[in-house]
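Following up on my earlier thread - several people asked me to post the actual chain instead of describing it. Fair enough. Here it is, all 438 residues.
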Amino acid sequence: MKFTRKIVAAGLAAATMLGTLGLAGCGSSSDTAQEENPKSIKIWHYEEDNGAQGKAWAKAMEIFEKKTGVKVEFEKKSFEQIRQNAAQILNSDEAPDVMEYNKGNATAGLLASQGLLTNLNDYVSKYNWDKKVSGTLADTGKYDDKGVMGSGDWYGITNYGEDIVMYYNKDMFDKYGIEIPKTLDDLEAAMQKFVDNGVTPLSEGVAEYPLQHLWWQLVLSKANDKFIKAYEMYDGDVDWQGEATTYATKTIKDWVNKGYISKDCTGTKAEDAGQAFMNGTYPMFFSGTWWFGRFQSDMKNANWTFATFPDTDKVVGSSGNIWVIPENSKKKDLAAQFIDITLSDEVQNLMGNSGGLPIAADPDKITDEKTKELITSFNGVLEKNALGFYPDWPTSTFYDELNSSLQELVNGTTDVKGVLNQMKDNYDKGVEAAGVKS
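Reply from S.P.:
Thanks for posting it. Predicted structure:
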């Protein structure tokens, strides 16, 4: 299985960062009493029904109910609902039995450090998950006794990969006689031509992740490994007024001033930015491969394509999100059965044929040509060890802080140097609070 071997062997190069907090009560899968003869199980995730993960996990729930006779009580939550309220919810009786959660020290690592996630070591052994989730692919699910991602005990299981790409509406490019960009100069020239024709080229959202991903991609286009290691792994000092961060922040500001990015996007959320691309308001959208399946479903009458960001050695991305079992769940055995089903051939192949990047699919079963193109692109990123992680990973509060600083940049209330100073102050405070640097 060429596709599976490439992803597992090359891994997703997730960062092995220094820890946040000491683990409080590392439970195991047998520590909490299991409910006898349960009739239902509560599952949460935040994927759209017509996305690759949404389709695959709906099938997993269907298989689970048939296999176990246990009813699934599924609740769809938004990314923000889970991100902002996870600790409170998981420390209450309202916690689900299994849920999708974001990976990294600032998210899953923080919950593990608070004793809110189940130690999955026993289940990993029982189901041989480490045979499918191996190498650096496993890093996002493993945390050591300080909550450090990349080693120690298992607290989450991923079943797909992701990176951030530029999506292009070819119909809009053709309408204005513009070529799909191959270089950064091409990209900026294309954006200028759209502006000249009264079209804002980039669909952006600053209220959530889209613009911070673009900002980080611009950083990565100038950053070296030393910078990335300092930023993500706290190994050295981050030069916040240096070339990489200054270039990225100044470029965002320039693109706003030139009309490539709308000044009105400061309150726009990710879903709205994606919808605006899908309905043809904007010809370009820089975001994750998690949108790919939805674009296939919702843009059937549009001619669109994608590519990694031009002229860069590193791209934004990592493994996919992880399934976790809350420590408060009394149905952990059933939750583990469900996770195992998401890694089954049937579910993995469905994800692949729906536009996702499964980690254990049979490539011979992937029939969609556009999806094969996506897989080829992602494997190329892996072969070059080009995944550059995400900008909000270093501290538990940096996601919101980055968005806030970028909102000020876009609306013009703070200049480039001031925004970088804000980012530095917030980053330093978060790292200091985590106690990861002497």
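Residues 380 and 386 are 9 Å apart (CA to CA). That should answer part of your original question.
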